[in-house]
Amino acid sequence: MILQPKISIVTIVYNDLKHIEGTLLSVLNQTYQNIEYIVIDGASVDGTVEVIKKYAERLSYWVSEKDRGIYDAMNKGLRAATGDFVWFINSGDQVYDPATVENLVVCIDNDTDVVYGENVLIDDQGEILGMRRKKAPEKLNWHHFINGMMVCHQSVLVRQSVAPAYNEVYRFSADFEWVLVSLKSARKVVNSHQILSRYLEEGMTTQNLKPSLKERFVIMKRYYGTIPTLLNYMWLGITYFFYIKKNKGNYRPL
Question: Could you tell me if residue 223 is inside a domain?
Fold first, then answer.
């Protein structure tokens, strides 16, 4: 175990007055002390900035300015982070409970580059809907991602020295590649065997799902080759098709 590793938690937000305070408090109320909390706001105009200012003295760094989108904002957070590990808990999502980070750091030693865990899904009112549909593999590695996003982005912490920048070429799937590349670079990947985050599940329409799947296909082909990706993607496509049909156009990762 590293003695008191510094954890940089980054929240990005844009015009999310309804959820931002819950996200902020889930981090600020952690019992673990060595947390650097960074908030990147995309020049919100709905009152979000006023909520951030309410807690500004407890934040390590925050900024409100226009950006080029979600992954540009995440990259700003990465550049601002100075901790041993970085963790993205974006507006609407929450750290699971006040003792989460304190319990998590006992899993970390000097060789650990990635720590992961489970997450629960919450609705717009913060009520728990259940566990994520895909359970995290017992021993996760980058090869697992040929089968899709095997762990939730909000339940992965990556050591700063191996964390890549988010590829802003992608609009929907840069987080998928970010976790994959982090795992590929990691010396040691640790399963925390804990629920780490609460993920706001608002449903994903097929309009957004289709371009996301196209981007993931490009990413998978680059890392796993064309034929293996085609075979796996055909199976994933069939699975998603029937799931979407059953749920009347809404994707829920339960």
Answer: yes
Residues 188 and 225 in one domain: no
Residue 109: give the domain boundaries.
7-203
Q: Please check whether residue 36 is in contact with residue 6, taking contact to mean a CB–CB distance below 8 angstroms.
A: yes
pLDDT digits (tens, 9 = 90+) for 193-206: 999 999 987 654 44
Is 28 domain-assigned? yes
> Pairing state of beta strands 94-95 and 156-159?
unpaired
Give the single-character DSSP code of 80.
H
Q: State pTM to two decimals.
A: 0.89
Q: What is the CATH number of the domain that holds 194?
A: 3.90.550.10
| Domain-embedded: residue 1 | no
Task: Indicate the pLDDT class of residue 68, thresholds 50, 70 and 90.
Answer: very high
Are residues 224 and 190 part of one domain?
Answer: no
* Beta carbons within 10 angstroms of residue 2's beta carbon: 13
Q: Is residue 2 part of a domain?
A: no
Q: DSSP class of residue 196?
A: E
Write a three-state SS string for 199-234: EECCCEEHHHHHHHHHHHHHHHHHHHCHHHHHHHHH
Q: What is the CB neighbour count within 10 angstroms for residue 235?
A: 11
One-letter amino acid for residue 225 of the chain: G
Q: How far is CA 244 from CA 170, 176, 248, in A?
A: 23, 21, 6
3-state helix, strand, coil split of the chain in percent (to 5) is 40, 25, 35
